[in-house]
Amino acid sequence: MRYALLAGGKRLRPLLCLAAAETVGGRAQDVMPAACALEMIHTYSLIHDDLPAMDDDELRRGQPTCHVAFDEATAILAGDALLTLAFQILSTAAMDPPPPVEAWLNVIHAVSTAAGQYGMVLGQSLDIAAEGGRRMTLDQLQRMHALKTGALIETSLECGAVLGAADREQIARLKRYGSKIGLAFQVVDDILNVEGDPAIMGKAAGTDLARHKSTYPALLGLDASKSLAHRLVGEALHALDAFDGRADVLRALATYVLERQR
Ligand code: IPE
Ligand code: IPE
Ligand code: MG
Ligand code: MG
Q1: Is the pTM of this model over 0.90?
Q2: Which secondary-structure segment (H or E) carries 60?
Q3: CA–CA separation, 33 vs 40, rounded Å?
Q4: pLDDT (tens digit per residue) in 103-134
Q5: How far is the CA of 42 from the centre of ligand 1 (A)?
């Protein structure tokens, strides 16, 4: 669990969560358990995503994947335990307000919905089911991306907003930003899988093509995929228009999603 979690990912989901809270006047320290829980769920999803039965990858976060460094059983269990620990941390935080217990309950509901069969797990199963099969339509691809990657990213914003005591309109705006950023993030992930540098990314490139994955570059080509990522980030920034300078970290993260090389 420590090997995979502390390897040094980009920490995008926790950053989004903390920045969302600060955007609406909340305090980072109140939101930290949610930020950590989100990173644990994300890391669990990577450990399982890399397993031989899934994407069968050997490099992650610049080091051998969990099942390579240890063994498959250990990797499966480390993922299971990180997912479970995330909810232990969230429910522990709920017992010690502030933020109020109702806010934590909302967070637990949102995170479990986004991570499970209605969100990330559904997206992952659509991804695996499509492997080697008939090419997806653009709508199907967008739905898969929104589920496997977008859902947890959107929820990261929602958690920060809810715990920062945002009003309904603020929550809706931040979720809109999150859904745009989330989709853009996976489009860029697909682009990097084609033309990224494995030494910078800390994971292999070229694997989507080798595995006949449905991706944006495969469906639209690289140029149209890049234009789409640009457009989505523009829409994400637009969703922040009503916020003041406290949303500048979110604005910077939107640009980062577009320009990232890892
Ligand atoms: C990789 O996520 C998998 C996707 C959902 C696209 P990240 O690119 O956020 O991975 P880390 O956390 O930086 O390792
Ligand atoms: C990973 O998607 C999505 C989740 C782990 C939920 P990918 O399989 O496309 O991402 P990488 O390229 O392995 O990081
Ligand atoms: Mg995958
Ligand atoms: Mg993968």
Answers
A1: yes
A2: strand 59-60
A3: 11
A4: 999 999 999 999 999 999 999 999 999 987 77
A5: 8
